[in-house]
Amino acid sequence: MIAEHLPALQVVVPLAAAPLIVLLRHPGIAWALAVAASVFAFGASVALALEVARTGVISYAMGNWPPPWGIEYRVDALSAFVLVLVSAIGALVAPYAWRSVAAELPRAQHYLFYAVYCLCLAGLLGMTITGDAFNLFVFMEIASLSMYVLIALGRDRRALLASYQYLVLGTIGATFYVIGVGLLYLATGTLNIADLAARLPQIGGTRPVLAALSFITVGVSLKLALFPLHLWLPNAYAYAPSAATALLAATATKVSVYVLLRFYFTVFGAALVVDALPVSEILIGLSIAAVVTASLVALWQANLKRLLAYSSVAQIGYITLGVGLATRDGLTAAVVHLFNHGITKGALFLLVGGIALRAGGVGFERLQGLARTMPLTCLGVTLAGLSLIGVPGTAGFISKWYLVLGALEAGHWWLAGLVVLTSLIAVAYVWRFVEAAYLSEPPAGKASAGEAPWSMLVVSWALVAACIWFGFDTSFTVGGAQRAALLMLGGAP
Amino acid sequence: MTSAQLIAACLIVPATGAAGIALAGRWPNLREGVTLAAAALLFACVLGLLPTVLAGGVPQLFVLEMLPGIALGFRVEPLGMLFALVASGLWIVNSVYSIGYMRGNDELHQTRFYVCFALALAATMGIALSANLLTLFLFYEMLTLVTWPLVTHHGDAEARRGGRLYLGFLVGTSIALLLPAIIATWALAGTLEFTPGGILRGKASGPVIGGLLALYMFGIGKAALMPFHRWLPAAMVAPTPVSALLHAVAVVKAGVFAVVKVVIYVFGAETLAGVRAADWLPAVAGFTIVAASIVALRSDNLKRRLAYSTVSQLSYVVLAAALLTPLSVAGAVFHIAAHAVGKITLFFAAGAIYTAAHKTEVSQLDGIGRRMPWTMGAFTIGALSLIGIPPLAGFLSKWMMFQGAAQAGNGMALAVLALSTLLNAAYFLPIVYAAFWRAPHEGDAPHGEAPWPSVAALVVTAAATIALPFAAAVPLALARAVAG
User: Fold this and answer.
1) Which residues of B231-251 are buried (b: 16+ CB within 10 A; e: fewer)?
2) Could you tell me the pTM of the whole model?
């Protein structure tokens, strides 16, 4: 009975936890509810992924209104994969948040954080699971609005400005998206994604359809921080509370990439997007610009959180590069990197949260000699940093492997060269941290208070271990990504 | 134990040894005991594999499938067997030496030093026993990363600079050149398993082969082919035991080992011999041999001179492998062992001189042979072996290389080998002359030999340099098996 409604419960449980938290208000209860809801969501997504692996596609009709009239929740190889990533990060960050939020937020705001956290998670999961283009917009707004709040909760006053910047740009993005969906509705008379996919080929590349494609591309690109639409991201990541940054960095942009993939390859179809239009060329060009400039900018940041934020812009460039290649290996690279970068950045931002707590900040001047007082944290950052570089034996290597392979098989050997050369910039910025933490003297009289709290360490290290694990055992990541790539290119259900 | 278990033990023993060293960090004697026990046990495991390999067997161990169609796996063939034997055998001697050196110089962070050392050996074993390019690449990168803390051991500005060069060159070349080469090989051949005869045979056209060869040869930065050799002299800021075992044996030999592996098992001698685009390799290797020898000649710092000598000697192996005749390939393989015992002796001596007399420059060594007769005696033997004086180990490999070059009809290679022998003599013999026949400087503080573990170690490796040609049956059998 319950198993049958898992697609709905996946979203409804965290969504319902939010008002409950606001009603109860007690920080401890709020935290416990958030943990319970996010752990449930994780369990549900794993169950759904197993079910999808067995049966193919799950279609769930909301309120028994059959699609395309009612809202359909649809889980396939691609959405199941993204659901697992989002809910896993959600379930890890929630327990971590206890100590981190206690240290960074005034007690009166704790319940607010957890309520918004649950809302954000529900929004992101909803965006991934829904099979309805307008319902996706609704969840996008839920996720975005809660993100604005999460960022604004940061104790630095600049968090307000960062939140406001993101609010303006995020609203433009969402508006563009909904304009695009509106045009599609005009052209086809349907909002159901599967139905859109069935009807669009009959219409072909007419002006309204092309306009819709353009609006959706720009709108979603703003959300996923594709260069040069990434300007909101560095401040948002840098000034949000640590737990919020980890959630955002590991999931929010990834879900937006998912939306882009869904529209390009399911709704519009590779024939229109890749073959008839220069979308590939534009995406590859912008991705290269993202990877090169953001990596170089990251190198010069004076603050570890900002460094990692710019690194995220660069890594998103690798993902969109894979999307732009639009071959089987390219899409595999995009999807697998979506996951691998999610866990890598998640691990890094969680560890950085521990540093912020103990060292009182994450400017490079506070990181000098940090390995002496926080050896486990620094080792974790180093290992996750290796995954960011793409050293073999880490998850990041697997992504790079498929990205280079995809570029070579598409005949773009120069692109393969560019991918490996830009990884070298990642070596440089990761090693800035390593040198500061391991080879510098700690500043006199400003020794940090020791290792991060164990609850934060355990969660962070779980993700660090995942970065290593998925560098060796790739049956879940590569297997899932290859199934998703096949699905997008129309090879399987 | 089955041979698969022995392979696993070769990786697990040094890895758990590292953990044990970390746990025993507070009790130095226990800690060094763990290091010695792990080294001895590792050597025993490697020796356990030897009879099977000599009998023509190929022990294998499949761990898991890392990527669809590409396994994390190990397969012991003669070349890997020889490399593993050399590295694990010398780890025992080097550990004894380290105890004398590290204590004699009151070095800090000794636990970290021994932990990284054990991890470096685990990575070296992984490289030596790897069954395919991906496994080799995994341990190759691991070796760079775990030796970085050893290079930057002193933590000062110079160590930091050395560490940057080390990482920049090794990680830079491996990610920018070697990784694309491996991925391109996978795309072309559909396999990465080392296969006699080569996996690229008939899979690519001449120019592609030539391009790939360049990516591989320069991408394997650990082989220190010019212009990617600068990391090796930079790595000399490390404590001398690191320079001795890692930067004269394990790390650099991992480089030339990978070069030989790639030439024989990825391209295949036949494929390369038929491709004009591969002809540049002997020339580049020859240039490296001569140019590095000239730099060595002009270096007053002893460790720097030894480092450039290593750069030059590594290219012997590359040159000999590139000549592609059975004798030259056997010479290349044997030189991996011969250069290892000779050069480690020289570094041991350099470290002993630093420990006992705090001297680092060649020009300071006048008359030191009288105060440190054992050390300088061993130094002389190592130097003569590297020059190629019979009957020492280095003579045997040079002999095979000369014959191979003659067989290949490569006049350039013959000339390079002859010229570099002269250069070797020119940069080694003056040190020996000054040490024994010149009068000591006025005002030198009196000193004797270094602590006994260090002296014992260098005597053992010098003895090995003498004994290797007489006990050459095993290494030669392995070398011939590689050359087919």
Assistant:
1) bbbbbbbbbbbbbbbbbbbbb
2) 0.92
